[in-house]
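Project standup — Tuesday

K.O.: blocked on the structure for the chain from last sprint. Re-posting the sequence here as requested.
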Amino acid sequence: MSGLMKWTRRGLVASLSITVLLVLTGVSLLATESGTRWTIEQLEKNMPGISRIESPEGTFWRGLHIPDLLYVDSERKVHAKNIELRIDWRSALARQLKFNLLDVESVRYQDLHPAGSRSKGFSVNLQAPQIPVRINSSRIGQFELNGNGTSFEAREIKMLDAVLQDSSLSLKSIAAKTPEVALTISAIRAGIEGDVTLRGVVDWITTDNVWSGHGSVKGTLALLNFEQELTGPYPFTAKGTVVLQGRVEPEFNARISWNRWTIADVHLDEGIVELRGTIDDYTAEYELIAELTGNRFAQATGSARGSTVSLSEFDARLESRAGSAGINGTLSWSPALSGDASINISGFDPALADTRLSGKLDAVAR
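H.V.: unblocked you, prediction finished:
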């Protein structure tokens, strides 16, 4: 028995020594600058794509600053500057990874596909983490996307209370600013496996404070339903769907409606516009009632094809007691307002303009 106890004690001492050695090794890697540098060197050597992690300062335990990080593979190049990272290691006792702070001064994403090549389009392919990941606060000061004819910039991207657990992601809010719009999405819930699901509340305002919107999104990246109430000089409601998955540019199918717009002395009532396509290539069909001076009304219908800067073609048909008119042409509003159109008038009653006149008038103008 004494021999068994002796060997038992030796086994316990050996196990305790190994445990203490592992703890000291872990502390050395996390809490010392030399251990942190060694760990980062191993990441550079063994993690595909990471080609440079420049001069890290601090430690994983107390907080880490990485002045420069470069990731390159066959399809993309990502360059991040001045990364601040603080991890709450006490959370590891509860089997989770918690970031108290994740701050990046700038991120530049470069698409390395050759110019003019066909992009695979937007896609999300994430795997559920082995343990829950929580981020209390995250910020990217400036984000730039370039390549294959695409250019996009955003700044002050801020994320609060993000939790990634199993196959679900939740965020209290994420906010960003572009040169044109300040955007906030709150109460976000997403599923990251299979058809990526998403729901949230979207608020935005233009940088000149002229337009703003509020509404919801719900669905999947393959077919996302949205609804927005827009406030501005000509308020309206927008409802529809947008396709993001597999698209280089989002594809939308939307209906815009309003009760009354007033432009000069003309009221445009009960307007409906059906939009389909992308921002740079869309088609539109519309109908509305135009109320003119003198309590005169006209029913307007038509269609158009255009982009953010012009209508490459449009047509309109007006029907009223005074007769009918058709308009066909093109219209551009950038860099300056210009257009070309032909007008066909048929069955116009001149008596509505002057009671001394009678008959019907047909005319063509350009």
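K.O.: great, moving the ticket to review. Confidence is low (pLDDT under 50) at residues 6-29. The first strand starts at residue 50 and ends at 54.
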